[in-house]
Amino acid sequence: MKFDRDQIAEMLQDSLPGPELFVVALTVSDAIRPKITVILDSEQGFGIDECAKVSRRLARRIDEAYGEEASYTLEVTSPGADQPFTDQRQYTRHVGRSLSVKLQDGTEKTGVMEAVEAEGIQLAEEIKEKNKKKVLPAVLVPFAEIKEARVVISFK
Fold it and tell me: Residues in domain Ribosome maturation factor RimP C-terminal (predicted)?
């Protein structure tokens, strides 16, 4: 059976409990037993209960549209800690954390994100200077210049 990604996306939007959750990614494979993978996020974070609720609601809608005998795997999850941000709304709950940012021109910056503004993020870049770390004053890094950003995971 072939699933229509656009139709699944509409069903997914109807399955969200409110505007606080948003879709980061939706993939629908064309395998013999298709796999539908949904990655959700929220500006405040969320738990497994919300994932389960969306999963049940979406499964019900898929079964209604494609029949209960349709064979598929459904996975509803949150982005992993090592996943790059794909939506500007993902930055908000990571204020105060260290980010690794790759810019469109190929340069990379690592530092603490001090704030999120409408046009970009305030990043206090950390640079190494003679075996010491130096923190530069925060500067605005426009979203348009960010190619990829992800949280730096540290085990201190």
Answer: 87-155
